[in-house]
């Protein structure tokens, strides 16, 4: 008797854990953990499917746009080469250069002289026709090797200026002309706010011209009408879609409007994760780490989620647009909420199902636990009454399981005890 602990002698002093709570927690764990796992897996699968669909749409639209820009630009280069290699154009430039030297006038005065007009009238009909018939041409320039702008179809303020003068030396046009003089190759100026122009944005393609002996006599330059191409970037986008394309140069300068906001062009800087990914790819390319396929198509086919230029979450990818000596970045983006709109509905439904399942499991666990624990509690209370010497009635339960067997055995013990006590008296 001494070896029996005080808690065993006096069970009322022991602390008991709730069997009902244990049942409820186990029911929740066994039902919710697999459900949460399956729901999470389904959610991720659905999200990845929507990401793949968005990536496919972005890739197709981006590839179409890139090919359209490059095809259009290549046609313009062909036109430039045809005109620059024309004997008539080199002869016209030599004639104007000769007239400038013979006149001994300043360039700005000579281009307003009758001699200049007479020499121009002899050759310019073809150039005027080009500007009038082709909507992609804003203007055509003839520039000698000293940088003197001797001819312009539109006769804007830059006619009679020197392309390397302080007023123009820092323009992309000047850099492009210098590059063509140095290399003899086609040069593209990219897009800029050209100081001496009525158009909001300007771009130029230049190529050196040679005489019959192959000596360089100057530059043939075309001022392109790039606005129409920039406006057409999103023509393939479905109405109501947030999908958009925009161009960025290697310095991160925005070259085309985002959602028709032309005020940002050549002013706004783009520093998104997509632009940084392009810079990283260029660094890898310089280290010969880019595959031949990537080199050939200049495309990053992996779309990913990031903060867009308007501080909204987007899904986007990029392609490189190669235009002569210039690389542009074409970024294609779609709002994340639009691309993954269905996943939000799925997440809400999954959460609702989890809450409903939790509620049902808790109610079921409480019901089952009570069916098990109530007879045990009743049996415990009756046992304590018997231990105190009281006379108790047999326990009645509705179950027909192992617990009912235990209760029946206890009731049999009570009857035997009662019969034995009655026999003593």
Number of strand segments: 9
Structural category: alpha+beta
Would you give the CATH topology of the largest domain? Answer: Beta-Lactamase
CATH class of the largest domain: Alpha Beta
Q: What's the CATH H-level homologous superfamily of the largest domain? A: PAS domain
Mean pLDDT: 83
> What is the architecture of the largest domain at the second tier of CATH?
2-Layer Sandwich
CA(first)-CA(last) distance: 29 Å
Number of discrete domains: 3
Q: Helix amount, in percent?
A: 40-55%
How do the helices and strands line up, and which of them pair or pack?
Elements (H helix, E strand, L loop, with lengths): L5 H4 L9 H66 L2 H17 L3 H4 L3 H10 L1 H9 L3 E8 L4 E4 L19 H12 L3 E2 L14 E8 L5 E9 L2 H5 L12 E5 L24 H14 L5 H6 L1 E9 L5 E11 L2 E10 H4 L1 H47 L14 H23 L1
Antiparallel strand pairs: 1-2, 1-5, 3-4, 4-5, 6-9, 7-8, 8-9
Give a structural overview:
It is built from 13 helices and 9 strands. α12 runs parallel beside α13 (402-424). The protein has a 5-stranded antiparallel beta sheet, with helices on both faces. Strands 6-9-8-7 form a 4-stranded antiparallel beta sheet, with helices on both faces. The radius of gyration is 43 Å and the shape is rod-shaped. The chain folds into 3 domains: 16-48 and 342-424, no CATH class; 55-68 and 242-339, PAS domain (Beta-Lactamase, 2-Layer Sandwich); 85-225, Beta-Lactamase, CATH 3.30.450. A hairpin with a 2-residue loop joins β8 (313-323) and β9. Residues 289-299 have low confidence and may be disordered. With 425 residues, it is α+β, with helices and mostly antiparallel strands.
């Amino acid at each position: 008797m001494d070896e029996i602990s005080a808690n065993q002698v006096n069970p009322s002093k022991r602390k008991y854990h709730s069997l009902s709570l244990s049942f409820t927690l186990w029911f929740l764990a066994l039902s919710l953990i697999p459900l949460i796992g399956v729901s999470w897996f389904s959610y991720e699968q659905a999200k990845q499917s929507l990401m793949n669909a968005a990536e496919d749409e972005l890739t197709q639209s981006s590839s179409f746009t890139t090919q359209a820009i490059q095809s259009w630009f290549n046609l313009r280069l062909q036109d430039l080469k045809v005109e620059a290699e024309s004997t008539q154009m080199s002869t016209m430039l030599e004639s104007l250069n000769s007239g400038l030297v013979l006149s001994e006038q300043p360039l700005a005065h000579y281009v307003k002289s009758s001699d200049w007009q007479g020499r121009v009238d002899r050759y310019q009909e073809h150039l005027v026709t080009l500007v009038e018939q082709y909507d992609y041409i804003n203007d055509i320039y003839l520039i000698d090797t000293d940088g003197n702008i001797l001819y312009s179809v539109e006769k804007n303020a830059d006619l009679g200026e020197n392309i390397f003068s302080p007023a123009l030396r820092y323009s992309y046009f000047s850099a492009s002309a210098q590059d063509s003089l140095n290399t003899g190759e086609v040069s593209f100026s990219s897009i800029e706010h050209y100081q001496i122009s009525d158009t909001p944005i300007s771009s130029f393609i230049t190529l050196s011209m040679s005489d019959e002996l192959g000596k360089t006599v100057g530059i043939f330059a075309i001022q392109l009408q790039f606005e129409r191409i920039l406006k057409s970037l999103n023509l393939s986008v479905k109405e109501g879609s947030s999908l958009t394309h925009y161009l960025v140069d290697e310095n991160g300068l925005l070259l085309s409007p985002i959602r028709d906001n032309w005020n940002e062009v050549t002013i706004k800087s783009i520093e998104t994760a997509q632009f940084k990914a392009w810079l990283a790819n260029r660094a890898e390319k310089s280290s010969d780490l880019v595959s031949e396929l990537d080199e050939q198509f200049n495309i990053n086919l992996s779309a990913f989620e990031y903060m867009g230029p308007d501080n909204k979450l987007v899904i986007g990818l990029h392609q490189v647009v190669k235009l002569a000596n210039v690389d542009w970045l074409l970024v294609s983006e779609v709002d994340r909420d639009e691309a993954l709109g269905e996943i939000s509905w799925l997440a809400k439904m999954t959460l609702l199902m989890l809450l409903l399942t939790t509620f049902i499991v808790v109610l079921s666990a409480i019901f089952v636990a009570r069916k098990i624990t109530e007879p045990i509690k009743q049996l415990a209370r009756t046992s304590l009454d018997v231990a105190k010497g009281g006379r108790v009635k047999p326990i009645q339960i509705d179950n027909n399981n192992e617990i009912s067997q235990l209760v029946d055995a206890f009731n049999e013990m009570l009857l035997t005890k009662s019969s034995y006590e009655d026999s003593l008296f």
